[in-house]
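Hi Prof. W.,

I finally got the Acetocholine receptor gamma-subunit prediction working! I wasn't sure whether to trim anything, so I left the full sequence exactly as given:
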Amino acid sequence: IINVIVPCVLISFVAVLVYFLPAK
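And this is what came out:
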């Protein structure tokens, strides 16, 4: 289960960074 959750969390975290950083 952890092997599935970790990549999803990392991808979502990176997606949030990519989405919000250019806004600044």
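The two ends are 35 Å apart (CA to CA). Does that look reasonable to you?

Thanks,
D.
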